[in-house]
Amino acid sequence: MDSPPPRYILNTVPLVDIDELWKGYRPGSVRVQALSGVSLRIERGEFVAIAGPSGSGKSTLLYVIGLLDRPDRGRYLLDGRDVGGLNGRERAHLRNETFGFVFQTFNLLPRATVMTNVLLPTLYARHPVDGKRRAAELIDRVGLTDRVGHRSNELSGGEQQRVAIARALIMNPQILLADEPTGNLDQKTGREILGIFHALHAQGLTVVLVTHDPEVGGIADRSVRLEDGRVTR
Amino acid sequence: MRLLADALRTALDSIRAAKARSALTMLGVVIGVFAVIALIAVGEGVRQQAEQLIVGLGPDLLAVLPGASPQGGLPAATQLGATSSLTTGDVTALRTVPAVREVQAMMFLGRIVSYGDHETVPFLLGGTVGIERFFKLEPARGRTLTAADAASRRRVVVFGSAAADQVGLTDRPLPATVMIGTVPFTVVGYFAKSDLLSLGFNVDTTVIIPLSTAEALTQSNRVHRIWAFSRDPRNLQPAKEQIKTLLLARHKEEDFSILEQREVLSLLDRILTIMTALVSGLGAISLLVGGVGIMNIMLVAVSERTREIGLRKAVGATTGAILAQFLIEAAVLSLVGSAVGVVLAWIGVEAAARYSPLIPVITPQALALAAGVGVVIGVVFGLVPAVRAATKNPIEALRYE
Known about the structure:
The complex is a heterodimer of chains A (233) and B (401).
Chain A: E1 16-25, E2 32-42, E3 47-51, H1 58-65, E4 73-78, E5 81-82, H2 88-98, E6 99-102, H3 114-119, H4 131-141, H5 157-169, E7 175-179, H6 187-202, E8 206-210, H7 214-217, E9 222-227, E10 230-231
Parallel strand pairs in A: 3-8, 3-9, 6-7, 7-8
Antiparallel strand pairs in A: 1-2, 1-4, 4-5, 9-10
Helix pairs in contact in A: 4-5, 5-6
Chain B: H1 2-17, H2 19-56, E1 61-66, E2 86-87, H3 88-94, E3 100-109, E4 113-115, E5 118-120, E6 123-127, E7 139-142, H4 147-151, E8 156-159, H5 161-166, E9 176-180, E10 183-191, E11 206-210, H6 211-218, E12 222-223, E13 225-230, H7 237-251, E14 256-260, H8 261-304, H9 306-314, H10 319-355, H11 364-390, H12 394-399
């Protein structure tokens, strides 16, 4: 098990505390063991890179952390709370309030404007949020103020990923989860996007970033390496 | 509320993005709603006109029909051409009933009527004097039949406008001679074009000869309808009972039915309700096809938007929220289709009212039905696609290519 870096106070509860997680899939006729007893702690404010070759289970781990996927076995404490027994509705609310997702393929609503896309998570909020103002601030922060009325399919890849980041932040999440966020971008644009993650982390946001690119892992506080569903480092 | 607004926006977006596809999808619902609304409107129009006619004949009218009346049902032998149990002798006898002030009768004849080379099979009837008012017919030219015609069994005839057209009589000077079967008759008048739309036949194809002449022509004393008017318009019971007693004495059995105006009305109502239900059933089949179309397109949409569904779940949409979104989309498609169908039906009804004797009536109930059907079709047929969307695994949905 990873021990938390010393700069975190030891008796605080880790934000993510995963112990002996197992997860298998059966996409075809062959069973794939994506996670084989993964244990991981992520402290508040950390920037963790999850690295490893494709098929190593890193995306599965990210989705389990983000409550999009359920492990077969193992314990997951989110901010000290066991989330293993939550029903679909409670998990959906936690995804809405606690996590922000950024994907490799951006996943914007193509015909909707930048503003509508950023506001999407507020539709599913349990409590009303002043979304428009916050959305405008976030769009400004990712540098897209002049694109606010554009439809997302009129934007470049880098711009789309900026919209996705603003969308991930709209509900003021505790953790930003990114799955290969630079995978579909050229090197220069990818660096700009990583710069945004870096800045967000500097402001105190917890970031978990999945990548197979060792260079991307370089900007993180800590890299966790997965191979064949096991943590190797 | 925000979810509803989002679902509506998304639904209208999808319709806009694939206009042709959406239009084709909605076509079934459009046709179905159009058919149901238009047919109900026609039924309602016929009902209102027929009621006006029957009510217009007066509240003191009693209809004597051949055939026994089953409990609350339609007398068996009311079809045209069926052998009737009523006779001209009954008509004469009924005139002596104290509580009855007037008796009218009709005999339906199936005869070819010809003028020169033209021939037709009109709605030919032998009637007592004044029978034309049962069809709201009035002479436009010449005269109608008189007591003198009846008394002398004259071979005279009055033509409805459509019947006159069919044999090329229109604009011919009076009197003209036509053949009814092989017997020559003198045309003494033409009826004006009727503004009445009647049930099952065009009133203007009516051709009337005196009942006494018809009796001689057919060698039969059978009549198919007798109409008796009560002397007391408020209390029809004495007339009804006296007619019944008299006919029972003459027939030795109850092979006839006596209906009051409200019974005739309710009978008419029942017949029309059945007719309307039957034709609306045809519209309903089209609605069913429309519903399947919507289901199909929604399944396609759910498949196309798999990643969107995954994303919405990732950002916190519950299963219920996704379900609601796709149900609303299906309902919007179906409602827009219904609205177009209603508009088409309305245009059709206006056109029918202007260019035909038919005056269909769109009732508020019919509109409510259309709106209800729109939502129900959308929700029922949208359910399978919506459930499919809502239960998608978010991970697989996000990875969907």
